[in-house]
TrEMBL record, chain B:
<dbReference type="Pfam" id="PF00111">
    <property type="entry name" value="Fer2"/>
</dbReference>
<dbReference type="GO" id="GO:0016491">
    <property type="term" value="F:oxidoreductase activity"/>
</dbReference>
<keyword id="KW-0560">Oxidoreductase</keyword>
<protein>
    <submittedName>
        <fullName>Isoquinoline 1-oxidoreductase subunit alpha</fullName>
    </submittedName>
</protein>
<dbReference type="InterPro" id="IPR036884">
    <property type="entry name" value="2Fe-2S-bd_dom_sf"/>
</dbReference>
<keyword id="KW-0408">Iron</keyword>
<dbReference type="InterPro" id="IPR051452">
    <property type="entry name" value="Diverse_Oxidoreductases"/>
</dbReference>
<keyword id="KW-0001">2Fe-2S</keyword>
<feature type="domain" description="2Fe-2S ferredoxin-type">
    <location>
        <begin position="1"/>
        <end position="75"/>
    </location>
</feature>
<dbReference type="Pfam" id="PF01799">
    <property type="entry name" value="Fer2_2"/>
</dbReference>
<dbReference type="InterPro" id="IPR002888">
    <property type="entry name" value="2Fe-2S-bd"/>
</dbReference>
<dbReference type="InterPro" id="IPR012675">
    <property type="entry name" value="Beta-grasp_dom_sf"/>
</dbReference>
<keyword id="KW-0479">Metal-binding</keyword>
<dbReference type="InterPro" id="IPR006058">
    <property type="entry name" value="2Fe2S_fd_BS"/>
</dbReference>
<dbReference type="GO" id="GO:0051537">
    <property type="term" value="F:2 iron, 2 sulfur cluster binding"/>
</dbReference>
<dbReference type="InterPro" id="IPR001041">
    <property type="entry name" value="2Fe-2S_ferredoxin-type"/>
</dbReference>
<dbReference type="InterPro" id="IPR036010">
    <property type="entry name" value="2Fe-2S_ferredoxin-like_sf"/>
</dbReference>
Amino acid sequence: MHIIKPADYARMLERLAPAPALAAPSRRGFLKAAAAISGALVIGVRLGPSEAFAAAPTDGPMPNAFVKIAPDSTVTVLIKHLDMGQGVTTGLATIVAEEMDADWSQMRAAFAPADAQLYNNLLFGPVQGTGGSTSVANSWDQLRKAGGAARQMLVAAAAEKWKVPADSITIEKGTLKSGSHTASFGELAADAARQPIPAEVKLKDPKDFKLIGTRLPRLDSADKTDGKAVYALDIRRPGMLTAVIKRPERFGATVKSFDAAAAKQVPGVVDVVAVPAGVAVLAQNTWAALQGREALTTVEWDESNAENRGTAELLDEYKKLADTAGRNAAKRGDAAKGIAGAAKTIETEFAFPYLAHAPMEPLNCVIEKTGDGVTIHTGSQFQTIEQAVTAGIMGIKPEQVKIETLWAGGSFGRRANTAADYVAEAATILKAIDGRAPVHLVWTREDDIKGGYYRPMFYHKVRAGVTADGKIAGWEQRIVGQSFMIGTPFEAFAVKEGVDATSVEGASDTHYDIGNLMVELHSPQVKVPTLWWRSVGHTHTAHVVEVTIDELARAAGRDPVEFRLELLKDKPRHTGVLKLLAEKANWGTKPGAGKGRGIALHESFNTVVGSVIDISVVNGQIKVDKVVCAVDCGIAVNPDVIAAQIEGGVGFGLGAALHDEITLDNGVVEQANFDTYIPLRMSEMPKVEVHIVPSANAPTGIGEPGVPGVAPALSNAIFDATGQRLRSLPFRLEDFKA
Amino acid sequence: MKFTLNGSERTVEADGNMPLLWALRDVVGLTGTKFGCGAALCGACTVHVDGAPVRSCQTALSDVEGKSVITIEGVGGEVGTAVVAAWRKLDVVQCGYCQSGQIMSAVGLLSENRKPTDEDIDTAMDGNVCRCATYQRIRAAIHEAASNLA
């Protein structure tokens, strides 16, 4: 995901319906604190005019706050991002705890309310949202200042109470001390809240960090191991009805007519209503709703605007497009001339399927009328967009849409939907029943696998060559695939001169020093809804680039690591990762007979990850034995969470390399559940080792960058072991011959 | 429908054909047992019936009449405590949604086999999908719990 520039805010907001009345925030940051009742100290870091801040609520955690200190000394960090497993509640709390010199055991996390001005993603502009692996990166300065300000106010309160100079006071593990005086945060919270806001916040020198860079227990481990963690699917409201939607087989079809009689006879079914997505069955419990949907056999669909093409037809069209010039995504030197003069050339093609995200928690959302508006309970990843879309449907203002953000059972990009699809569906159902009961819209797994918003199908065509002395002579790459940014609120910043950056990122901005480069893009229109999928464009571009680099290195008779190092001479982060990786993965040794080793290196979300995969060939079958990764993500806030994200990213990427595939036949999705859309399972999970490059730079992304290098490293390992080159995903291992 | 739920006698008024999963979640109100696929393909809904792990989405409420059902909320005993402790020590969870089912399957495995090999773990746990791919830590946590039970 790319960073929104201020000039794009207005255009972006115009696309949100209705446009929320948000002023572009001023970049003059300052701190403001206010006391909540019961002696809590609440600190907020604001970007914007102070007048807007004056209206502070008088109880509970204040909506303009990041830090709350309770009388019992627990410190609650308000988390403006969604935690969908990436561990951001732990990460953001660590940043605050560090600057406060708190003890880790006193730290808590709570999801912040939806508020685009107070809790916006600083890299998204006036939008609260989580994505692009930005949570820690955009919060780093903000939360260091919030924690540091809280610390200074506690110190000032203690100095006043004890009549000692502030600089005589130390804080260690949440206890303030000066001479014989000691106090906890809770004892001083009320007094601290009355202190003036520090004009300047003194931040720690990173060499003095005590918590950052160490292994801290996750804040969510306890509740996620005893059934207590609450996900949207677990929300129960008085009188709540569960809704499931009967959906069309083909994308773009709409309801023509239906007969609700049979469904209404199912015990527990309360109502059957038509909504834009299909026909919704509302019932007293999930089982009744599902049975009601089963009974709904008489829906007629209008398929006049439906997508009827299948995967084979689309791929044919994409291949034809790849033979024609596309829009210019990158051009330097003369790629064609370079290739013409090359000593050795390659011409390759790569096909990538549609991919479902398939988070373990099927998509769902509770919506109910409250006060003068509505309240949404969901694992919300794009709060501002969900507010705007819901407000448009309900005919209210965005600020009348409250969102209770909950733990999300996975997302992988699916919940960050510019159309807010499942939230919108829940709102249309609530509207259809005149808001008379809270509605819990539940998708089944089949709804999810068949429901679209996939990583788009892509096709890449590559021509490249090397010179006699082993340099890249030229590189031509044509990319064909749908844009999921055009026509959305994010078009203004993602699409420039017709080129959707999310389709070409990782290729058009390759980190390799290639003098003669041409990258072109075609963005065909298909009615299959598409969306970003963990690591977005890098899911396909990194594969093509890293396989091609490997092929060129072999064509030049060069070692793949040395070949890369020469192309990365002015890229110290990349070479640092490569060198650490080569050492940890024993790159210099041979893996042995019947085995293979492959490497990939890629930068995404400002983080560099290198991956080495070791495989064995057993009875003609490929077994992935071990994956060694090296990562430079700036300062490692929580090294163990970083390791977990890379481990999980490897598993996620391996699933895509080996199995994941959504196909269409005459516009109908051919997969339905985990028996046909195959997830990676325990027995296929290799051993994963993660090594972090020490860094003094600000933190960069970690949720996504572990994914892109997996498939190319595996392709390169398979070639190393067998001399067979597998390019398109998922790999057809049944075609493999040892 | 009468059965023992987490050690206590319960009478649940619901259609006997209703899957145990939905009876637990929507009628009894125990939401720790998760819906993931509705077809016994992912293991998120795993509970114990008379001590054996079963997929509650494919178990009718009438099938558990007179039996003992343990859900994630009722995990305890020597093995259960060791498994949960290992999960926390190694910070296995990411999104956490599948972990109730993972823990129920792991408790089932370790109740039968106190020293499982990697192959034993593959066999016992392959039915439990984790899209966050926390498998490496699940494996390590099962070994950790086994070593603490020895």
